[in-house]
Amino acid sequence: MEINIKSDNQSFSCYMALPENKKGPVIVCLQEIFGVNLWMRNIADKISSLGFVAIVPDLFWRIQPNVQINGESEEDFGKAFDLYGKFNSDMALIDIENTVQTAKNLSENDTGKVGTMGFCLGGFLSYLSSIHTSSDANVGYYGVGIENKLSEKDDIKSNLVLHIATEDQFVPPDVQIKIHNELDNHPKVSIYDYKADHAFARIGGDSYVEDIASVAEERTINFFNKFLR
Questions:
Q1: What gap in Å lies between CA 27 and CA 84, rounded to an integer?
Q2: Among 192, 191, 208, 189, which residue's Cα sits nearest to residue 200?
Q3: DSSP-derived 3-state class of residue 28
Q4: Model confidence at 37, in pLDDT bands (50, 70, 90)?
């Protein structure tokens, strides 16, 4: 189903998936550079099947609403990277906070708590959400660009899990080392490494690795059960 959320006197759409009993804590799923596409909807549907309300906000709406790039051709990546080049993370954080605030007050939210869970671009935004939003817990999968915001690490307010793909072409080994060096001893951060490439948890994508994604998912769900219930 679709819901609309107000932001800056306008509104943007979100995909929402409900668990079988129609209630649960909310996880705001933050998109990759492909928009609120089939992959993100698959992830939201999986999260809802595990007892959470899942919301996927359209974070490209300020550039182009309702982007859904569902392929992995050179043309698809070209469109996605063009949108990424126009993307403003500061404005996205406003939209994420508005989504979190709306989610906290949904009738379907039976605990009043909200987490964020992001992938690629969304993984970076989940890291920033732990600093700049009122989310209660955050999970980032193979976030791209986190190294550029490590200077803000002391402002992390809510607990954060980062899943790192050690063979990630977009997050090279020196960047991974920097993230570990800066965050390994942070009291609110847990980091897990996986011998896999970028997008190993993209359900339906070419890089999906089911057994590794399952391990990361179990850690993610245990984390959200601890902090959102």
A1: 23
A2: 208
A3: strand
A4: very high
Phi, psi of 146 (to 5 degrees): -60, -35
Of 58, 168, 206, 211, which one is the catalytic site residue?
168
User: Domains in the chain, please, with CATH?
Assistant: 2-228 (3.40.50.1820)
Residue 224 makes CB contacts below 8 A (sequence gap 6+) with 25, 27, 52, 115, 117, 137, 139
Confidence of residue 204 (pLDDT cuts 50, 70, 90): confident
Angle value at C-alpha 134, between 176 and 50, nearest 5 degrees: 75
136 in active site = no
- 77's enclosing H/E stretch is helix 74-86
Query: What is the token pair recorded at 178?
Result: 């920097």
Widest distance between CA atoms in the chain: 45
**DSSP element (H, E) containing 159:** strand 159-165
pLDDT digits (tens, 9 = 90+) for 45-74: 999 999 999 999 999 999 999 999 998 899
Active site residue 163: no
Q: Model-level pTM?
A: 0.96
Active-site residue identified among 155, 180, 198, 206: 198
Contact 161, 220 (CB under 8 A): yes
Is 219:192 a contact under the CB 8 Å cutoff? yes
- Provide the H-helix boundaries in 87-162: 89-104, 121-132
